[in-house]
Specification:
alpha+beta; nine-stranded antiparallel beta sheet; 4 helices; elongated
Length: about 230
């Protein structure tokens, strides 16, 4: 199949963004975005499964070679798309806009994005992309909204700052323009830096609402050397 240059491609993930109607997004996930005149008729709308992987995303990137991807779905879906941009070395060349499926999206809160459908759609189409820190983990994933270590007994550092050395119910970490941030909770000191490192007895890691399949005794979130290009206010 020959490649085509697409200025914008809208990705909808079943079980997430496809359940919400945005101003340019018709009743069905695969329908034409016709409600906003600024959207060219040739803009593709591609439906993906939840938690899309290499086989779902890479063919879209290869076929359409988009300048901007609009991701409609859950935070984990956005993370999955960013991971494929990273793996295919498109992180710095493809802009990313996000239409969160939930008004309680942690990613929207972390990056200051609107959750109102009309405002999110307008920003996705007409907003400007800005380089933002990409937060990775040492299990091969990325963090776009909220990371947690549950049932943590051990210690954690944010760069050189000791943020905990005790037993806590959870350690909460969020990404953002300043890097990676440890949220202050009982027994945990707030801090922001380039990396958060955890050493503990067996605990559970949760990344953007998805639980890591195995217990962990070490975990790191860290800022990648290259930024991603986020469309934000």
């Amino acid at each position: 199949m020959s490649s085509i240059d697409s200025d914008v491609v809208l990705l909808t993930c079943r079980g997430g963004g496809s359940r919400r109607r945005f101003p340019f997004h018709g009743i069905r996930p695969t329908s034409r975005p016709a409600r906003v005149p600024a959207v060219p008729a040739q803009v593709p709308v591609v439906e993906l499964p939840p938690d899309p992987g290499r086989g779902d995303i890479d063919p879209v990137l290869s076929e359409h070679r988009p300048r901007r991807l609009i991701v409609a779905g859950q935070d984990a879906d956005l993370g999955a798309v960013l991971l494929r941009l990273l793996r295919t070395e498109r992180l710095e060349s493809v802009e990313v806009a996000y239409l969160p499926a939930s008004r309680s999206s942690a990613a929207a809160a972390a990056w200051g994005l609107p959750t109102d459908p009309a405002a999110a759609a307008a920003l996705a189409l007409d907003g400007t992309a800005t380089p933002m820190p990409l937060i990775r983990d040492d299990a091969g994933g990325v963090l776009v909204g909220r990371g947690e270590i549950l049932g943590l007994q051990g210690e954690a550092y944010c760069d050189d700052t000791l943020v905990l050395r005790s037993r806590v119910r959870r350690l909460v970490v969020t990404p953002g323009p300043g890097g990676v941030t440890v949220q202050a909770t009982r027994g945990v000191r707030a801090a922001t830096g380039r990396a958060v490192q955890v050493g503990c007895v067996s605990a559970t890691a949760v990344v953007d609402g998805r639980e890591h399949p195995r217990p962990v005794t070490r975990w790191t979130w860290y800022r990648h050397l290259a930024d991603w290009r986020l469309v934000r206010p």
